[in-house]
Amino acid sequence: MKTTLSTHLLKSLVAAAVAAIGLSTTAIAEGAKPVLLVGFQDQTLPETVAASKVLDGAPYEVQWVTLTGPAAQLSALYSKAIDIGHMGDTSLIIEQGKAKEEWTAANAPLQIVAGWRTADKKYPPIVTVARTGTGVETLADAKGHSWSHNYGGYNYLQYVLSLVKAGLTEKDIEAVRLQDTTTSAAAFNSGKVDIFSGSTLGVIDTIEAGKAKILVNSDELDIPALNVFTARGDVLRNPEKKAQIADFLTRLRTYWTWYPDHMAEIEAIFVEKLKQTPPRAKFVTAFQQSSFVVFDDALIAREQRIAEVLLKSGVIPKAIDVAVEFNRDFNAAAVAHR
Question: Helix, strand or coil for residue 166?
């Protein structure tokens, strides 16, 4: 059995984003600041960025559009409902690998402009975990068991590479593909599936309760596991929009500097505004402390190896050049302190 993303739900989410851009157009017509539409998958970053005040005084207005899962972010980008979308660093590998036309640096419809990941090594961004009592003690035990994941980002890569490491294919398991990591984790936490691949955040409570064990993490699979901002090619070719993105990333670089000195404040935001329990808020605050990474040849080489694994595994049908997916023009804005 394979459960897939609801097309109706995805269209509804993108319609909400389109409504947001309609409001923005009205605001611009009335003489307000130009608007940069930024998609994000939850409210953690928008709320804490607002608290940091790093966007105060910007010559444009940032409007956050919440769309869960990489598939919704990609749909919103393609439909021009947002200018920048939040996803994992491997989402574009799959997009390019399945595209009918060849991507080049000049014509790529989408490019990654910045990436970040959890700073503390004790918090691996992505894990494959099994529920205790299911008989799954190692990856090799996964055969015949249900396994939840979501498609299109680094969570999916964790799933694919976990299967490869286990010496299994999707035919050997009961694959349960859901909308995003939240719904996939919920299926696992409730005991409806035996195995989960995705964000550590989604299943940390189950792990800490002794009801699940980590089989393999993203670092062990050599997955960079970056959160990234992806922009459309036409946005990047617009000088005004490109300048807004550069300024936005520079301000977020300041936000990452602000973050470690305001952990208590951030925990309170997660408790009061996002209704997290105090223990979870404390973990999420530590887990999300990050900084931008530089897009250099070493990172591109790692991403290229991932593309080659996905090609060999049959996830993408053709060889691609991952370098065209990464726009290095914003390195100075995002990582000038390095």
Answer: helix
Whether residue 252 has pLDDT greater than 90: yes
Max intra-chain CA distance, the chain: 63
32 and 95 inside one domain: yes
Any idea what the CATH number is for the domain that residue 190 is in? Answer: 3.40.190.10
Whether 163 and 184 map to the same domain: the answer is: yes
Q: Assess whether 213 and 237 both reside in one domain.
A: no
Q: Are residues 87 and 134 in the same domain?
A: no
How many C-beta neighbours within 10 Å does residue 159 have?
27
Q: What is the mean pLDDT of residues 274-293?
A: 92
Structural domain range at position 195: 126-217
pLDDT of residue 15: 52
Q: In this structure, what are the phi and psi dihedrals at residue 251, rounded to the nearest 5 degrees?
A: -70, -35
Give the model confidence (pLDDT) of 76-94 as tens digits: 999 999 999 999 898 999 9
**60 DSSP assignment:** S
Asked whether the beta carbons of 317 and 98 are under 8 A apart, the reply is yes
Name, in order, each residue with C-beta under 8 angstroms of 305's C-beta and a sequence gap of 6 or more: 222
Q: Residue 105: which of 324, 295, 331 has the closest Cα?
A: 324
Claim to verify: residue 32 and residue 115 sit in the same structural domain: yes
Q: For residue 212, what are the β-bridge partners?
A: 131
As a whole number of Å, the end-to-end CA separation of the chain is: 48
In this prediction the pTM is 0.83
Q: How far is CA 101 from CA 53, 56, 84, 144, in A?
A: 42, 41, 22, 38
Identify whether the C-beta of residue 70 lies closer than 8 Å to the C-beta of residue 152: yes
- Cα separation, 168 vs 306, in Å, equals 18
